[in-house]
UniProtKB/TrEMBL annotation:
This is Snake toxin/toxin-like domain-containing protein.
Length: 149
């Protein structure tokens, strides 16, 4: 999927958006799953889900049209998470790195408190596509070898 850049204008008479606003950097501080910024709207353990703390809900500025949540993982380990109001949002996942895989995923929305989840990863999809292209390249090279020898 290509990244989508979204931009809109506030309609006259429309109320200001409210979004969760907080930032965590696990390179600087230890991971704490009960931190109010993390939130866990999907319950994988059968326990009551831990939602984003309502104290982080803020009123956005006049030019902030989106709520954004961005997650950065290195080798499938969460290293940072941010939630904020924004005027422009780049939706999607951006993988980078060779050997040390880094993925930044961003989710954009425009309703009150909608940035309480996690952007979905495309790591599995990316890995499958990469494996397919490597396999196809090897087959192509193998078909050329008999004609070279």
């Amino acid at each position: 999927d290509a990244l989508r850049v979204t931009r809109q204008t506030l309609q006259p008479g429309k109320k200001l958006l409210k979004c969760y606003s907080c930032k965590l950097d696990f390179k600087k501080s230890a991971y704490n799953r009960t931190n109010g910024c993390i939130g866990q709207p999907k319950n994988f353990t059968g326990q009551t889900p831990h939602l984003v703390d309502p104290d982080y809900l803020v009123t956005c500025g006049v030019k902030d049209y989106y709520c954004k949540v961005e997650r950065v993982e290195v080798m499938n380990v969460l290293v940072s998470l941010s939630r904020e109001c924004t005027d422009v949002c780049h939706y999607g996942c951006r993988p980078k790195g060779f050997g040390i895989h880094t993925e930044t995923c961003t989710q954009c929305c425009n309703t009150t408190g909608c940035n309480n989840g996690y952007p979905k990863s495309q790591a599995a999809t990316t890995a499958c596509k990469t494996e397919f292209f490597i396999h196809a390249a090897l087959i192509f090279v193998a078909t050329l070898l008999p004609s070279v020898m």
